[in-house]
Design goal:
Chain A: It comes from Castanea mollissima. Chain A: This is Mitochondrial inner membrane protease subunit 2. Chain A: Its main location: mitochondrion. Chain A: It is found in: Mitochondrion inner membrane. The complex is a heterodimer of chains A (about 260) and B (about 160). With about 260 residues, chain A is of the alpha+beta class. Chain A has seven helices and ten strands. Chain A is about 30% helix and about 20% strand. In chain A, the strands form two sheets. In chain A, strands 1-2-9-3-4-7-8 form a seven-stranded antiparallel sheet. In chain A, strands 6-5-10 form a three-stranded mixed sheet, with no helix packed on it. Chain B has a single domain, classed as Umud Fragment, subunit A (Ribbon). Chain B starts with a helix and ends in a 10-residue tail after the last strand. The chains are: A alpha+beta (about 260), B alpha+beta (about 160). The interface between A and B is medium-sized, with 27 and 29 residues.
Chain lengths: ~260, ~160
Amino acid sequence: MNLLPLAFFNKKKIEDKLGKPLRLLTQRSRSRQHNISLLSVGAFAATALFGSPKHLVLLQRFLTCGLIGLTISDRYASIVPVRGASMSPTFNPQARNFTDDYVLVEKFCLKKYEFSHGDVVVFCSPSNHKEKHIKRIIALPGDWIGTTHNSHDDVLKVPKGHCWVEGDNSASSMDSRSFGPIPLGLVKGRVTHVVWPPQRIGGPINSWVGRSGAMASNNDNGSVNGDMNMQLSHHMEPRIDDEPQILHPGPLDESLLTRQ
Amino acid sequence: MRLLSYMGQWKSAAKEVLDRTAIVAKFLCLLHVTNNYLCSPTLVYGPSMLPTLNLTGDVVLAEHVSHRIGKVGTGDVVLVRSPVDPRRILTKRVVGMEGDTVSFYVDPMYGQTTVVPKGHVWIQGDNTYASSDSRHFGPVPYGLIQGKVFFRVWPPDGFGTLEQ
């Protein structure tokens, strides 16, 4: 199939008439001939634009690779750079200011939208759909989240279909403490590994909290996860299934309290 | 000797299988890109958009170009991922864009007015009596919009663009 337009390009060169493709188009023929004639017209037009069959083949290869790459990055996995320090020290720890971390984002989670506490996700910002942010899921639908607002504590229940996201670096992170819980439909992928720079290749970036069984399994994954556990352990208590867990992430923006 | 000839046949057969598989894979990629970035047919059903869309199901064409370039506006029928269940896609009409003031009635006796926040849209079904929409779950972020419905393909007597 790759060589089909090329073959018909040659045929066009031999015949060298403009009238032939038009006649082919208007002719009542079997659909196969119709497709072939359209291809030949397309090849003829493309050749007029690009000037040689080699360029045509290159263009075709480029388009094919583009389509395949787009499909893979939409359905399976893609690699994205992490900008900013809102997820230090998990990504972009302060020591290196010259290069961004590149992470692997997997899209298999979008089939069922099942996430766990502690998953780092990529999502579209609710205030500007063109921006994407990377934050960690702290609370899932139905969880109660405790926040501090003007020095008095307040408790919010995360509505159905939403989640509460926060950056690991609470001091400089625009997250659910400003814009509230986000619908899970905005999540575009889950971060599993760091792939660049080479000295920080690692992961998988696991859930760092949850039932005590999950906690134990994360301890042997090296210093990155160990640091995460230490930094975040004061935020979470181990979850007991029959008690609503109250989570205390950080100060809350006032506008959130009027929503419910 | 026979083994060598079998290997030769196997090799050519394997090459042909790979070529055919590559063609199918490329076609599926083209299908995916067309469905997600250009135009896709969708079956929509439910009572919330009567009389515009039927109860038992219409096949409509939705285009996925406008919402990426920000051209979705008031009055458009859009496909929106539900904020309550991310696995479901709803079909509703956009009644207010960000910054608009929207008045609505959840209960026929009691009306309310809100301003749509930045980056969000207010969606409502045309059949306000049987629709769960922004009047119940609030304004939805623009990022949840999946596409804009512009044409109906089935049933045949409804073939054509949707009337306002």
